[in-house]
Write a structure and sequence with these properties.
Oligomer: single chain
Number of domains: 2
CATH superfamily of the largest domain: ATP-grasp fold, B domain
Bound molecules: thymidine-5'-phosphate, aspartic acid
Number of strands: 14
Distance between the termini: 21 Å
CATH architecture of the largest domain: 2-Layer Sandwich
Structural class: alpha+beta
CATH topology of the largest domain: D-amino Acid Aminotransferase, Chain A, domain 1
Helix content: 25-40%
CATH class of the largest domain: Alpha Beta
Radius of gyration: 17 Å
Number of helices: 6
Largest sheet: 7 strands, antiparallel
Shape: globular
Length: 247
């Protein structure tokens, strides 16, 4: 793709995997995807070569797919290899996790075998607070913590399930099982709730549909090797989705 020329403003925020810069227009920001990888609330740190480039492209594809399926997102356009232009939103301090198959912290909590199909997609909320390790919260606790209004919590949980029902068949056609994923949402200045953050192997568990091979950040979390190769494999299967792309 030809790089678009959009001037990077000042650094507004630096997270574990991304930086947020001011854009020439105050309604927009530039999000830069880094190669830095962390796990276990930042305890484990590393770099995955070219992760930022792959996740920028993958996230852009997923956001375009979701927008074209009626899910509003913060995504505007990909500017270059590492940067995307997004709407400047106010993040709701909740992480919305959707699970189709038991893995990760659910397995730790319930003792279920990894890979157990759940009877129906399950939604969990965690409160975004690194100091507390993003604790799991009920809707009532999220309300008590002042994270969002009750109708907004209901709305983002519904949107998360809608995202799940769009991504699952799309990925399965590309021989990927969507095990679970984490989403974040924000409010625009006009008060609309949009999907934000990223959708990538950092924030989703993807398993090969035939072999159940892990193709996501669990390879980094568990020192399994082949991390970059797994991210590339997901990118090769998903590709640069545009509305005109073959379904
Ligand atoms: P978990 O099983 O560790 O709770 O993770 C569930 C999903 O959420 C998994 O796809 C990884 C993703 N996730 C993040 O994107 N960020 C996080 O900080 C955590 C803990 C999980
Ligand atoms: N991204 C989170 C962290 O560093 C956790 C994870 O994805 O496992 O801390």
């Amino acid at each position: 793709m030809t790089d678009k020329h959009i001037e990077l403003g000042k650094l507004l925020y630096e997270g574990k995997a991304k930086q947020v810069y001011a854009a020439p227009n105050q309604d927009l920001v530039i999000i830069r995807y880094k190669d830095d990888a962390t796990a276990f609330n930042g305890e484990k740190k590393g770099q995955i070569e070219d992760k930022g480039i792959i996740n920028n492209k993958l996230s852009a594809s997923f956001f375009r797919l979701l927008e074209s399926s009626g899910v509003p997102t913060h995504f505007v356009t990909r500017i270059n290899d590492r940067d995307q232009l997004c709407r400047n939103i106010k993040i709701i301090p909740l992480e919305v996790i959707v699970r189709n198959v038991a893995a990760g912290s659910l397995v730790k909590r319930t003792g279920q075998a990894e890979g157990t199909e759940l009877p129906e997609p399950m939604v969990e909320l965690t409160y975004k607070d690194d100091a507390q390790g993003d604790p799991l919260v009920t809707k009532e606790e999220a309300l008590a913590r002042g994270a969002a209004k009750p109708e907004d919590i209901d709305h983002i949980c519904k949107m998360a399930l809608q995202v799940n029902s769009i991504l699952c068949p799309f990925l399965l056609k590309r021989k990927l099982k969507l095990i679970d994923f984490k989403l974040e949402f924000g409010h625009t200045d006009e008060g609309q709730i949009v999907l934000a953050d990223e959708i990538s192997p950092d924030t989703c568990r993807f398993w090969d549909a035939d072999t159940n091979e892990k193709l996501d950040k669990d390879r980094f979390r568990r020192d399994m090797g082949g991390v970059k190769e797994a991210y590339i494999e997901v990118w090769e299967r998903v590709g640069d989705y545009h509305v005109t792309s073959a379904e």
